[in-house]
Amino acid sequence: MIEVENLTKRYGAFTAVDRIAFKTNSGEIVGLLGPNGAGKTTTMRMLTGFLPPTEGSARINGHDIDTDSIEARRAVGYMPERIPVYPDMSVRAYVTFWAQLRGIRRPAAQVDKVLKQVQLFDRRNTLIRHLSKGMRQRLGLAQALVHDPPVIILDEPTIGIDPQQVIEVRETVRALRAKHTVLLSTHILSEAEQVCDRVLIINKGQIVAQGNPGELREKLQGGTLLYVEIGGASSKEAKALLAAIPNVISAEKEGKGWRLKVSPNADVRGEVSKRVMSAGCTLLEMRAETTSLEAVFLELISKEESGAS
Ligand SMILES: Nc1ncnc2c1ncn2[C@@H]1O[C@H](COP(=O)(O)OP(=O)(O)O)[C@@H](O)[C@H]1O
Ligand SMILES: [Mg+2]
């Protein structure tokens, strides 16, 4: 479990991470989602003891990263943004080396177990220089997992690897949930949506929204969307008719039809069809629309930007 309070990092006058606070539950995959420069890596480096916070505190499985740093570090496995590589080491030797650094006395069995977990056991004798990027990424995962920590922190685990490898890395990460708490960063929305149980959206060092992907979408979009196309009415008539329906927040022209913003939990479909017919018009199409997290995210980020200017 990770508990973060008021965590802040300043570089001179520049605030890279600005009073963030969050908590993870055990067995949860939490995504730190944000554009480049948002403060994801800085946050993770503070949580893993590589960078002292300017202000605030954090606990890893109850151990304060400042006052109880040895135990805090022991409880966490970290895959950094750039994995240090030793090209002339074999896969197995590399993971064994990390296991020894982590104080595991007879690491052989544990190393084999972890290599199987990340699907590199068949490559155990391969030199790192001969691994593909995706395999190196999985080697980074093995290094983070080797001491079986309760908390795992992964900084952009799928960056720069090919689509097939992305799928494999995501599957490996999903499987970790059974036994570990995972915090992973990404700038890819679909990844956060697919892999994470909960998402923290970070922008300019601040957490601007959080929730599970579905909740976030609802909260930010402020209701649900309905697309409606009407025949036999002028644009003006159609708009007046739709906007007058209870629980319709707004009706905006979209292509040949209208996009209705509807109050959360309201179902206006029956009323739409009734009113369209009684006005002597035809209902050509009606369907619920979902906003992708992508749209929500862009909306959030642009709001932040216009708010700042
Ligand atoms: N050592 C440093 N000195 C000054 N600024 C830094 C330093 N490290 C990071 N930053 C700045 O802090 C911000 C957050 O960076 P980072 O945490 O790497 O973002 P992310 O991982 O989300 O892309 C960026 O604007 C970056 O330029
Ligand atoms: Mg980063």
Keywords:
alpha/beta; four-stranded antiparallel β-sheet; binds magnesium ion; binds adenosine-5'-diphosphate; 309 residues; Alpha-Beta Plaits; Rossmann fold
Number of domains: 2
Q: Major sheet, described briefly?
A: 6 strands, mixed
Please trace the helix and strand order, writing H or E for each element: EEEHEEHEHHHEHEHEEHEHEEHEH
Question: How does the overall form come out from the CA principal axes?
Answer: elongated
**Rg of Cα set:** 24 Å
CATH level-3 fold name of the largest domain = Rossmann fold
CATH superfamily annotation of the largest domain: P-loop containing nucleotide triphosphate hydrolases
Summarize model confidence as the mean pLDDT.
90
CATH class of the largest domain: Alpha Beta
Q: How many helix segments? A: 11
Uncertain stretches: none
Identify the strand order in the major beta sheet: 6-7-8-3-9-10
Measure the end-to-end span: 37 Å
Quaternary form: single chain
Percent range for helical residues? 25-40%
Measured by DSSP, the beta-strand proportion falls in 25-35%
Count the strands? 14
Q: What is the CATH architecture term of the largest domain?
A: 3-Layer(aba) Sandwich
